[in-house]
Each structure stands twice: as structure tokens, then as C-alpha cells.
Amino acid sequence: MIISIHQPDYIPYIGYFYKIAYSDFFVFLDDAQFSTDNMHHWNNIKTPQGELRLKVPVENKLGMKINEVRTRDTLKWKEKHLKTIEMNYKRAPFFEQIFSTFSQLLLKEYSSLAEMNININSWIANSFKLNTPLLLSSNMGITTTKETRVIDICKVLNGNTYLSGNGARAYQVPEHFADNGLTLTYTNYKAFEYPQLWKDFIPNLSILDYIFNCGFDWTLIETHLGGKLDGNR
């Protein structure tokens, strides 16, 4: 049973959904501490001039959890993001098919940044027809922190394998997982080239870049990454 865990990021890249597809359970770590360094409230799209960062203005104080942080909607940032996205992707093959639903989801009123990101990311995963159950860490009643929290989440879900992002290699200890009956593995996702607007290919942009250009075509992703990823391996 493969478990993966990640903070609810804003319109994340393909690799985020790769982890979902490759897991038997995916947990949104919505009660993790908010960080301006991580991609909880920003991501990059492509323009004729290159990458452009879309950043969500938020109301936050030091130590707040992602599910406590609210977006500053009075600044009309949602309308600005949508206008910027439309300007740069309206020529993309699947723009008309997808943009309306994305707009409706983004423009809804949410209680927190986490709720907004989870709503949008769940819609994207479902549109890719990924069947992995999506859970919230805040519903699990787990009070431990850091690596111990990850291990405890896996144990609650009866997992035997934890699929981690590569950024955690620096501080995770395989023996700590093994002592709890868990195998620690790392994602082998690698960026691949797909049809894209505006000159040279840029990897690891927001998932919006992929779905506007290629639609919700998970088969194309599987083809490039080598086989169907449906958990239980």
C-alpha cells in the first residue's frame, strides 16, 4: 500500500499529480505550516517572454497553518490571474474546453488557501481520471510533527511504502521508516517535453500549461514516464 503526502500547492506541476497517480492514498498536508518559500501560494506559467510567476496574496502570520491562511480576495487577484492566464493560453488547443470550469472553481469563496488549492487540485486529478483517494491530514487527529508525522499518517492508512518527493532526501532517515514497517521510496518523475506555446520548451510549469496544451490526457504522461501508474506495486 503506497502512501504519498504533500502540502496543497497552488496549481502545481505535473509531478504533483504523478505522485497522486502512483499512490494508493494521497494525503493533502493541509495543517502543515504555511511557508512563503514553498509553492503553497504561487506557481509559474509560460508567456511569449518566458516564465511568469502567478502569486496569490494572502493574510498570514508567522506559524499559521495552510488551512488557517486566507487569500486577500478584496485585491481582485483572482480576476487578474484569470486575465493573465487567458492572455497567454487562449491560443492553446484545449483552452476553451477547460478555462471556464477552472475560472468557476477559482472564483468561488473559500475559507482558506488550503481549501481553494485542494478543490482545484482534486478537480484536476478527477479530470485526469486518477482514482486515488484524496484525504486531509487535518481529519486524521495526528499531533506529531515532521518525519514522525509522515510515519504516523502512513501507519493510520496501513501503508507499507511511503512515496516521497526528492526534496526530502536531505532530512529523512530510511531506518526510521523501516523501524515502523515502512519502505521509504522517492519519486522518479522526470520532466518530459510536450506540445507547448511560445518558442523553446520550459519544464515544470504549472499543470495549467499541460492541460491547456494537451487536455486531460494522462495516457501521454504514462507514455513518457513508462507504464500505467495505478498503485499497488
TrEMBL record:
Pfam families to which the protein is assigned, alphabetical: WbqC
Name recorded for this polypeptide: WbqC family protein
